[in-house]
Specification:
single chain, mainly beta, 209 residues, eleven-stranded mixed sheet
Length: 209
Amino acid sequence: MNKIKLMSVIAVAGFLGLTARAASVSGSDAVTVKATIMLQTNNTETSKGEKFNVTAVKITTKDILTLVSNEFDTAFPVGAQLGVDSFFDGQMEVLDKNGTVILADASTNADGYDLVINVNAEIRTGSDTDTAETDDYTTISSLTYDSADEESFFDIAGSATVKDSFNDTKETDSESFDLSGVGMAAVNNHEGLITGTVSGKGINGDFGD
């Protein structure tokens, strides 16, 4: 596989025509990722002593799509979107600009790469009637990434809110979610911390837990 280091992937993502749009799409949730990795870099000597350095690396949905493209050694069309079948399923997808799935399993490959949403605990409020159901979840969840070359990873872990709605009369359903978290990260074996958000929304999919 043609491997590209994470820093290089981030640098070139803006030239590939990929999108960070998060409009509702049919059958899946369109996903938006906004995060910053703070890396502990080499110390420098000054006239007064030693200076400790940190480098900030921003991660966007475009960067994630480029990582997926690289890991699968394939190209996505202009307007491609990051998606997930449902929040509780956690399996990442790639969608075209219209929301059609073009890569059904963007979460794993045979080389050991992983990109997945994990739900560790949840509580639910809401209501269920003869014609409609609304579920509001508060969860402990994470978005985790491990590169196939084992040199880069991140884990955005924290609290997420999820809203699932089902209307039998209109034969529609919808889902939206927001995850905000912090965790460990590494870029090309330089370790650090990551903070960020992961959000998504979709309609007429296989939602709920």
